[in-house]
Structure formats: structure tokens, C-alpha cells
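ESCALATION

Customer reports they have been waiting on this structure for their group meeting. Please prioritize. Original submission:
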Amino acid sequence: MPKAHFIGICGAGMNAVAKLLKDKGWSISGSDKGAYPPISTYLDNHYISYHTDYKKENIPSNVDLVVIGKHAKLTKEINEEVREAYKQNLTIQSFPEVLEELTKDTNNLVITGSHGKSTSTALTAWCLEKSNKKPSFLIGAIGTTPNTNALIGASNIFVLEGDEYPASNENNKSKFLYYNPTNILITSLAHDHINIFPTKESYIEPFKKLVNLTKNKIIICNKDEDAKQFIKALNKEVITYSLDQKSDWQATNIKLGEVTTFTLMHKNKAIIELETSLLGKHNIENIVGVSALLLELNLLTKEELQEGVKTFKPLARRLDQKNTNSLIPIFEGFGSSYSKAKSAIEAILLHFKDKELITIFEPHTFSWRNQSYIKNYQDVFEGSKEVLIYKPPTHGAETHDQLNFGEIIKESKKSNSNIYGFENIKEGENILKSLINKNSIILILTSGPMDGFIEKTIQIAENKFPSLNY
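Update from on-call: job pushed to the front of the queue and completed.
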């Protein structure tokens, strides 16, 4: 049995590729200092062993492959386990390089974009799995539909969440350029990862390369000007989608609610009525994009699509409800960028118009901590009655022009005076206890663990406003 060792196994994509190799019959081990739920639970459930620190002794003897993640601390200079892998002259790859080998003979559906890609990838995989098409898939987040984020299936179809981020600390080539794309779905081209792509032009460049690699269908959301200009510059046939009737695929008759319904349209012709429990118009747009992909490729009937969409549940950290034992609903969104945070807030405001929104935010990603991103704090929390902001982490601060906490608070207060910064969990608890009331709804926005404050928030809501059945 071949052995693979993953350094940084809890990173986005790393745990999923570890699972894929396990499905292929490999023995898997790993290490990560950032092991926390839901990823640590996922690894435990799949019987993948891992160390919670980085030491050279972690690398197994006779290992066939070492896969190293992209985290800023996974370099030869500062990480002894990474340094040891190079010292032993072991076979070392990034996880996208592993995927290049796994996808060389499959029909690959690569789904990417600055936001919406995880939900769209999971929905695509679920619709295919639900209709017994037996796909392989890799999803960058944990969910219940499908009940794993990675699987080697029995068919030739491989659904992959693609990412424009560099493959590793040693290799600046974008991850998705390794995935042998047969068909692609691009959900958004909003400028992101400004620590890596300082200009809009540099951000768009890898997407151009992805399009040029694609062998078959190219499907792009064309709702914003950046996407329209991108499509205009391509010398390729493109299928478009959005909530706008000028796109090839659209949605009409949208009725928002606990269950949202709408009519899927293709070139102004009604295709089928769809219903979903996902929140927000951005998720309707995601569903339209996935519908376009699956129906254009004739991978599903419209009735199979309908059933898949109806039964799909939100991914962890993608507007999933975190509690059931309190009268105060608590949702968590993936707040890694401006567009994601903004969409999450807008979704909560749309569906819970009679509630008072408390947003709890952690500027965890490099983008949110970068001086050139500061203007996005001016309106991102629009619609929130109160906002709690946790101190920014310091990992990787030396790689960019880091904002300090005071600057973040000052900029955020330009549009909302009810901004409260907190530097430790106890301080955050006291602030939240003073603000929460029976008409509150809470939205947590982060891409990190928030040092346990998510769990504390649930506890506070349950203690102050328990549900009638609790």
C-alpha cells in the first residue's frame, strides 16, 4: 500500500485530496497546527490520522509522497517538518499536482470564481450523486449533501472546485490550471486575493489561461461589468447566466421564503420550477449556473435537476444555521472576502426583515488585513444594527501591508456607529450579552476558528433566550 503524508492537512483542499488518495487505496497521515472542527471531525470520521504540531518525526518511514499545503508557515525556512521532507529528498507535490494525475483521463467539470464556487460545486456533485450518476468530486467545504467533500466515484465524471490561488509556496501557478478542464463554470470575477493579485488585471489573468485550456463548454455568470468585459475579450463561445434576462440562463418568478421557489429560464423559455432552502439571491444565481452546466451537458434530465436542487442543504459556513435550542437564530457565512460577506448580510436581511441583525466578524484572510482593502470596510456591514469585530490574526503579517485593529474599527464606523471591537473572548461575551435581545438574529462571518467565540455565541443565545422546547 503506497503512503502519502500531508503537511498542513487541514488546509482547504488538502483534506479532500487526502480523502481521494485514501479512496484510491493509499495509506494517509498528516499534520496541522490548525486542526479544528469541522475539518478535524471530518478527518476523524474518515480514519485519517494526523499530528497537531509540526515536527520532523511526523514524516513516516518509507513514505512515497509528501504533499505540502499553501499556508504561510509551511516553508523550509520556518517549518522543520517541511525542511525535513526536502532534506530527505522525498517526492514532494502540492495537492493540485496530485489532482493533475487523478484527472488526466476523466470528464472534468471545474467550477471556480471569487465567490459561490463551493456551494456550486457541492450542488453539482449532489445533483449527479442523487440521480445515481456516480461522479468523483472534490469540494472545498464540508456539507451533508453530499456527506463528504471528496469521493472517487464509479463514472468518468469528475466535479472539481477550482481556485486561482497559487498551488504552493514554491509554485505560483494557479491551482485550477492543473485540473485538465473539460468544462468550466465561472461564478464571479470580483477582484480577490489582493496579496497575490494586486491589480484586477493580474487577478483575471489565470482565468484567461483556464478558458484557453478548456476543451468543451465555458459557462460564465455575466452579471457584473468585469465578467462582461472578460467575455467580450474571449475568442470563444460562452454560455452566460445570471438573474438578468439578458443572459442565456436566468431565473424569474422568484418567491423568497423559508423555501424559495423560482422558474428556471433558458433564452426566455420556461424550463422547470425549482425550489430551494438556501438563503439569498446569490444562491438562486448559483443554482441557475449549476442548472446551465448540467443541462447544457445533458448530464441530467430537468426532473433529476429539480429533485437535486430541492434536497440540497447548505454547506458548513455557507449560511448554515448553527443552533436549534434558542429563539435567536444564528447563521454562519464564509466571510473571506468583501463579496462573500456582503452577499451573506444581504441574504439574512432579505429573509428575516423583521429581525435586528447582529454581525460578528473576524478579518481572518490576508485580503481583509491588507491596507489596500481598507475601503471595503466602509459599507460591507450595511444593514447590520450592531457589528462585533474580533482582532485580526497575525499569521503572514510580514507578507503584506497589514492593517492594525484600530484602523479597521475606525474605517467601519464611517458607515455604522454601532461597531464594537474586542480583543479577547471574555470581552466579546460581555459585549454580545449587552446587545442581544429577543428580536435579534446573529450572523457570524469568518474563515477561521475565531478562537472558540462561535461556540460561545451559541451558548449565550441558548442561555439568554432558550427555545420553548429546550
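Sent to customer with the following note: The first strand starts at residue 3 and ends at 7.
Escalation resolved.
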